[in-house]
Design goal:
By secondary structure, the chain is mainly β. Helices cover 1% and strands 36% of the residues. The chain has one helix spanning 298-301, and strands at residues 35-41, 49-51, 56-65, 74-76, 81-86, 91-95, 105-111, 124-129, 135-137, 175-177, 184-192, 198-200, 203-207, 211-218, 222-224, 228-232, 238-241, 244-245, 258-264, 270-271, 276-280, 287-289, 319-323, 329-337, 339-341, 347-349, 354-355, 367-374, 385-387, 396-398, 403-404, 415-421. The model is unreliable at 350-357 (pLDDT under 50).
Length: 423
């Protein structure tokens, strides 16, 4: 056999097998190394901090050549995608429309869902291709996720096959995901004492000028970005809490994660049992968790809101009476008593004592009992009530011991009696 040309009759044999020296230079390039994922990151301003439900965090995947480690442009087939699984259980879908202009990276978006698993460090745990040939380079080498060296397989990237550069940048390596909404656990009352100290106030009566701190304890640290108003059933009484973050209540170290405001009893405010009628914020203002997020932007980290602010009045049950109505004298009555002295020098009342119902003249030694009735039970402490009767002998003084007790609660401490002796 011989190597000949294609002439049909008497073909010509090739007698010189030496390589020609004047061949044109070849531009053929053979590229068989597939693209791989080099890193998974996010970007500013999505910095370390705590992110709540509906927060949106970019997930950026970068591609390089498996051999040279140089940035490599990739392409997505029509309707092809990468499914990126986060350690919260959520899946981020990345498609061809998510590619950067240079094709070296693609950006998806993770939206925090209410059912996601919470974590202190957001990471990717796996990546899947929709098909084996879903993503490829310009040489038609398919993206190698499982790092088996073959671009023809569809193996997924598991946790051990993902790059070490997985949300590892110091600016975002501690992104926490929190899907638990804060709750209001309890509301306590503390009253300010005369010396300025405050003590737990669960039962008793508060009067005009008394200051009562209402302490709201939450399940976690919270912040409020407007004035929180606690309305009370005391005729326009309320306590206000200014914008700020929760703290440990200064007068009780056991009360942590609290907000508190002060209610000062005003004149004409009253109720037999103090209750809360509403807790509210101005329109557009919120009470949320995660006040210490380093991100510092609610638009970005979407802290979880307590909305509406549900409550169960005071916990435990309080029995606080508010009395901001000053007592008044409802009437003053008088009775004449003509006294004699028995053999032992003890005064005795004659049987003909008469009620003073009309003007009259009473001389020296006349004894007149004054009975003063009040609108409510009263107590005298640290002083007297002086009745100016217009007499030269001076006023009639009502002493604390002149307040009369009574077994009937409706009458107890509601009258005072004192006797004037004309001199």
């Amino acid at each position: 056999p011989a190597l000949t040309d294609a002439v049909g009759t008497n073909p010509n044999s090739i007698v010189n097998y030496d390589r020609a020296t004047d061949l044109d230079a070849s531009d053929i390039e053979v590229h068989v190394s597939p693209p791989v994922i080099s890193e998974i990151q996010t970007k500013s301003p999505y910095l370390n901090g705590t992110y709540g439900i509906n927060a949106k965090i970019p997930v950026i995947i970068s591609f390089v050549d498996a051999v040279t480690d140089a940035d490599e442009k990739v392409y997505f087939k029509a309707n092809a995608s990468l499914e990126v699984t986060m350690n919260t259980g959520a899946v981020v879908t990345i498609e061809g429309s998510d590619l950067a202009v240079d094709g070296f990276s693609a950006e998806g978006e993770y939206t925090v869902g209410a059912g996601d698993t919470e974590t202190d460090e957001l990471r990717v745990t796996g990546i899947t291709k929709s098909t084996a040939t879903a993503v490829y380079d310009e040489f038609s080498n398919n993206l190698d996720l499982d790092l088996d060296g073959s671009s023809a397989t569809q193996g997924d990237a598991t946790d051990t096959e993902l790059p070490n550069e997985n949300f590892d940048n110091g600016n975002w390596d501690e992104i926490a995901i929190d899907v638990t909404e804060p709750t209001l656990n309890s509301i306590d009352a503390y009253i300010e004492l005369d010396n300025g100290d405050k003590e737990s106030f669960t039962a008793g009566t508060a009067g005009i000028g008394d200051k009562i701190d209402l302490v709201l304890s939450f399940s976690e640290d919270v912040k409020v970005d407007g004035t929180l108003t606690i309305a009370l059933n005391t005729n326009n009484g309320n306590a206000e809490i200014s914008a700020g973050s929760s703290i440990t209540y200064p007068d009780d170290a056991s009360k942590v994660k609290t907000l508190h405001g002060t209610y000062t009893v005003a004149e004409n405010q009253e109720t037999d049992v103090l209750d809360i009628t509403s807790i509210s914020l101005p329109a557009g203002k919120k009470l949320t968790d995660n006040p210490l997020s380093l991100n510092g932007s609610d638009d970005t980290d979407k802290p979880n809101s307590l909305d509406p602010i549900s409550y169960d009045d005071f916990t435990p049950t309080h029995n606080i009476k508010i009395d901001g109505v000053r007592p008044t004298v409802t009437q003053v009555t008088t009775t004449e008593y003509k006294y004699a002295t028995d053999d032992n020098g003890v005064a005795a009342v004659f049987a003909d004592a008469a009620t003073l119902t009309q003007d009259g003249t009473y001389g020296i030694g006349s004894r007149i009992k004054f009975q003063i009735s009040f609108s409510e039970a009263v107590e005298l402490s640290g002083g007297n009530i002086d009745l100016d009767l217009g007499l030269n002998q001076g006023s009639l003084s009502i002493e604390p011991t002149d307040i009369i007790g009574n077994a009937d609660p409706a009458l107890d401490n509601r009258t005072a009696e004192a006797i004037l002796t004309v001199i």
